[in-house]
Amino acid sequence: MAERHWDIEYKTPEQIRKMRAAGLLVAATLEKLRDAVAPGVSTADLDAIAEESIRSGGGIPSFLGYHGYPASICTSVNNEIVHAIPSAKAVLREGDVISIDCGAIVDGWHGDSAITVGVGEARRDVLRMAQVAEDAMWAGIAEAARGLRSGRGRLTDISHAIQSSVRKAGRYGIVEGYGGHGIGTQMHQDPFVLNYGRPGKGPLLQAGLCIAIEPMLTLGRSRTVELEDGWTVVTADGSPAVHVEHSIALCEDGVWVLTAADGGRERLGELAAEMARTEPAKQA
């Protein structure tokens, strides 16, 4: 079978710097949302905080109006995996876990990131799963940097690194059919980035490629169901789920994590691109 043709938008260093501005706005917004998560807060409350943060920071919410999506963030609670719509009726309770997905456009360029947060005293096994997803995401990011530097890395090396990290941590469901994506002048671009698979497939990892990496895990099986609202994706077995995400840029000498406040310096070390290692420290 012939290899798929990928319509990839490779970015210049200057364009990547513009994407960093969108990434920082998303990072700052997510930190505000993390602080706001508490029992009694509705997901509509969180959506209002997000929209105000994005617009006051000079951005436009990426999600609002996207294919008809009616909100500025996705707020997926407990067994909801992704794309859950904020609602005044969805009030957070002690012990819940919520995944918040946020996107912003600045000067025509997109940033996209997600966090999972416990509400009060959440279950330890679910919080542990969130940490496993976070570590797997960073394993994928690090693999992207190593593949870039070797000159031989391919897209599914990232997928395999994520899967391997999860499998070493325990028995978790890796959600099938959903994953990361290219990002730039549009929120979703080629290439699609699965969170599992064999290495050595897909396009070469090269400078200018910008992608969002986003593991989604469950405490049960990986099968999913889309609800009647046409957006919300839940676990078929009702088990809790988590979702984390960062947008990254492959530069000539490493990776710049565009939606991390420190650019990825702490987690990546020397695998971080010089543009990440030398930029002034910024607080999200």
From TrEMBL:
What is the protein's given name? Methionine aminopeptidase
Q: Name one GO cellular component term.
A: cytosol
The gene behind this protein is: map_1
- UniProt lineage: Bacteria, Bacillati, Actinomycetota, Actinomycetes, Micromonosporales
What this chain does, per the entry, is described as: Removes the N-terminal methionine from nascent proteins. The N-terminal methionine is often cleaved when the second residue in the primary sequence is small and uncharged (Met-Ala-, Cys, Gly, Pro, Ser, Thr, or Val). Requires deformylation of the N(alpha)-formylated initiator methionine before it can be hydrolyzed.
Family, as annotated: Belongs to the peptidase M24A family. Methionine aminopeptidase type 1 subfamily.
**What remark does the entry make about the cofactor?**
Binds 2 divalent metal cations per subunit. Has a high-affinity and a low affinity metal-binding site. The true nature of the physiological cofactor is under debate. The enzyme is active with cobalt, zinc, manganese or divalent iron ions. Most likely, methionine aminopeptidases function as mononuclear Fe(2+)-metalloproteases under physiological conditions, and the catalytically relevant metal-binding site has been assigned to the histidine-containing high-affinity site.
Q: How does it assemble?
A: Monomer.
Per its UniProt record, the required cofactor names are: Co(2+); Zn(2+); Mn(2+); Fe(2+)
Is Lipid biosynthesis among the key words of this record? no
Q: Which Pfam families match?
A: Peptidase_M24 (PF00557)
Please tell me the species this chain comes from. Answer: Planosporangium flavigriseum
The chain positions of domain Peptidase M24 read 18-231
Residues binding a divalent metal cation 2 are 112, 181, 214, 245
Binding, substrate: 83, 188
